[in-house]
Fold:
Amino acid sequence: MLKYTNEQIAAMIAIQNLHKSYQIGSNSLPVLKGIDFNVKEGEMVSIMGSSGSGKSTLLNIIGILDEADEGSYHLDNIEVKNLNEKIAAKYRNKFLGFIFQSFNLINYKTAVDNVSLPLYYQGVSRKEREERALFYLEKVGLADWSKHLPSELSGGQKQRVAIARALASDPKVLLADEPTGALDTKTSYGVMELLQQINDEGKTLIIVTHEPDIAAMTKRNVELKDGLIIGDTIINQVRPQLHV
Amino acid sequence: MFNIDRWQEIFEAISKNKLRTFLTGVSVGSGIFILIILLGIASGFKNGTEHQFSRDASTLIEFWSNRTSKEYNGMNSGRRIKMDIYDYDIITKQYKDVLEYEAAGFSKGNLTTSYESESGTYRLVGTMPDRLFLENATLVAGRFLNQRDYEASLKVAVLGIPVAEDLFKEPESGIGKIISIGKIQYKVIGVFQDIGGERDEARIYLPHTTLTTLYNTTNSGSSFLFTLNPIANYDLALAQTEAFAKQVKEKLQKRHKVHPDDLTAIRYNNAVENSKDIYMLILGMNLFFWMIGILTLIAGIVGVGNIMLIIVKERTKEIGIRKALGAQPKAIVAMVLHEAIFITSISGMIGLLLGFVVLEIIGGQIQTEFILNPKVNFSIAISTVILLVISGAVAGYFPAKYASKIKPIIALRDE
Ligand SMILES: Nc1ncnc2c1ncn2[C@@H]1O[C@H](COP(=O)(O)OP(=O)(O)OP(=O)(O)O)[C@@H](O)[C@H]1O
Ligand SMILES: [Mg+2]
Structure:
């Protein structure tokens, strides 16, 4: 028991006995039925499971976009519970970066302005925002595309911009919900290679995916079924070059 | 409030969403435009009514003098009292804060006026620039006497329309012509019309200084005409004008050593006494005018509120993204409000200017007797815009609040 607690303290994400159900009319639909889940700093975890098993729900709770009904959640040793909107926004901005299946870029903003948006909400000066945004765009290989609108970019490029944006505020954890779901295989592997590189630099990543080959590129695979974790294995990370 | 970054965000949102901005602008701008036109017509209607129903300015207070009818301090009754320009100067100086229009008048008859082979005898009135308003007269052609004519004692004349018809057949053709009155030549600078009729129209207005100097009666001013700054409430206006008239009369009596109870020496007529109906009519017009204003304002509030709700709904996803990236609720409220207020003010100003331009263009062409000079008081128009912006902000606050409560997970769900 003591060992478990020490492990929890060292964890970036520590979740215990998490329950979540959705109210549909007068019925309650349980989605998460008691999740225990710890992630240490620097891990790269994939979450798999059939549709409706609760993957996105779990990720949203980790991302403080949604709240659990029961159980505890610590993010970097801070308890996340009953946060008001203001604090939740602050934690999202400081600790978390999101990557979505449909990119969710703001369509009237250029790549560099999209990337600098989290910094805008941190109150960083315009000049510094621009510098940092350009740094991350360069990191994802899109320095030359900084002045382009999302509509002028390919799917893979859009996802790279979204990754740069998620990195811009230098968060503790990156959360990606099916980041390759809208991309073809080759582009997907390119994106995964980038995510691996980011993880290699020490960032903690949690990736929800349907695709076993994508999951194979992470370091640990968690399997969800009907709101419970049914498998949690450390795997040998596959590097995408091997597939190409 | 002033935050360069927020302005930049807004300019970006505006310039990248031109159609949306344009539609919001058009609805607010056209609202203000219609408001200005309506207010203009309402005030034109008011002016027209005022003009239609009164021979002289409906608030005119006129003083004149005659022989005394009572002995006083050893002076006989029947003494002729002549109010002079010094009396006039003292009164205008003392009451300059309450006087709206002011003029002294000096009349002279018995002189023949002629142009080429046409001639006639008309009353000559030496007077001052405000006389036009005090008589409720309107210019048919040319201009009225101005301050320069008065100060330089120029030999210029403004003719009543029957006078101009006698001398020139076509009244307008008289402008710029030289006429002679007695032995002196004058240049015709204007022709006026006065619904007071023959009595007020068969006359020629000359600068007061010109007439008094020429006929060696430098100091004479046989009548004084005043209006006080307008007050909408009839009872107050009556009380104020009566008090003014009594004080002035006492002062004149004292200066000319007239018995305080002398009924004939110094007399006045206060037109306010007989214009209760006009006051009531104007009050009614003002109510009508404000009704229109307030209804338009309510329409504006609802309009702005609706547009902002549409904007917020349309931007649900964007707002969800911003919140996921760490935007605080108040940042979202500020963003929505700031943009809406900015667009509302700019387009409101454009609508305001267009309204003024259109009023200016059509105003002069309206040929109805009941609409005169349809203009909008600029400060009322500006305060309407300010009020609309404030109301827009109030109306927009709820959509903005709604926006700040948007749940990012719901906004971001892929469907
Ligand atoms: N806001 C909500 N209200 C009601 N039910 C919800 C809501 N969000 C999710 N659900 C339900 O909860 C269950 C789990 O949803 P979740 O999105 O977590 O599944 P998922 O594992 O991500 O599935 P997928 O692979 O299809 O994305 C589903 O049955 C879904 O219909
Ligand atoms: Mg999902």
